[in-house]
Amino acid sequence: MSKNELTFKRKEKKYLILEHSFDEIKDELVNHIPVYIFKGDKAASGIETTYLDTKDFLLFSEYLNQRKFRYKIRLRRYINENQIEEVFLVELKVKANSISLKRRFVLPADLLKRFLEGADIKAEIKEANQGLAGALKTYKLISRLIKLNGFVPVLRSSYERMAFQKKTRKVRITVDHNIRHEKLLGTAKTATLDAVILESKISGKSPKWYKKMVNQLSLLKQTRFSKFATGLNSLYFPDRGKYNFDCSKEEERETPDLVRASYELIKKAFKLEECDF
Fold this sequence. Notes:
Blueprint: E1 7-17, H1 22-29, E2 35-36, E3 44-53, H2 58-64, E4 69-80, E5 83-84, E6 87-96, E7 99-108, H3 112-116, H4 122-128, H5 135-149, E8 152-165, E9 171-183, E10 190-193, E11 196-202, H6 208-216, E12 220-222, H7 227-235, H8 257-270
Antiparallel strand pairs: 1-7, 1-11, 1-12, 2-8, 3-4, 3-8, 4-5, 4-6, 6-7, 8-9, 9-10, 9-11
């Protein structure tokens, strides 16, 4: 894994697809962009993502309040031929002034409990991330955010993904389906998302074929969409509705002090421009 695979800066667009099947979307995309091979000769991969939040859902509330600055912490690992990987990619994903930024590090699965409990595992993280520039700094930043906010695992989402990518890496498209959510706080519960999610990550101008494809398939661009939010809506707040990403008057609030403190840590680490709340 290279430095470029640990740090990202790009504009993203998401589409919720209810009228077309996964196969229809895949067949259209392969006419324009190569399938990305994850490992060996596998064109598709299973993904398991665990999301962190406070027990009173601070990050979810921030998402609903549509801050110009917000972030999420998730732990992702891949499933190939029903075998789940023994390592997590721990990711800090930041949204600041409409730009998405992401940093991550490798966490061996057997260190997960100690990591979440705040144990000092710098030596083990350094060993697991040899050659990955910035990984140790990212580990320290995420550890500080977890301790500061009291983050715990609240949601686990699993799904199948196929990716499409040009050699230049300026255009990358992922298509997710068979999405399943699992509640991690309180009484166990699961929910499924009966939709296909297409996400494009494009540096620079969108290709003409891409614009044509969006029109041909009548893809509905989502001004707001999040698997994290659909999972929490489905499992913790079902009265809100699965695809309701709007904030009610009762849910509106001033920026919490914890969010401002987190912002100062992230701003320094990412060298962000000043971001209004």
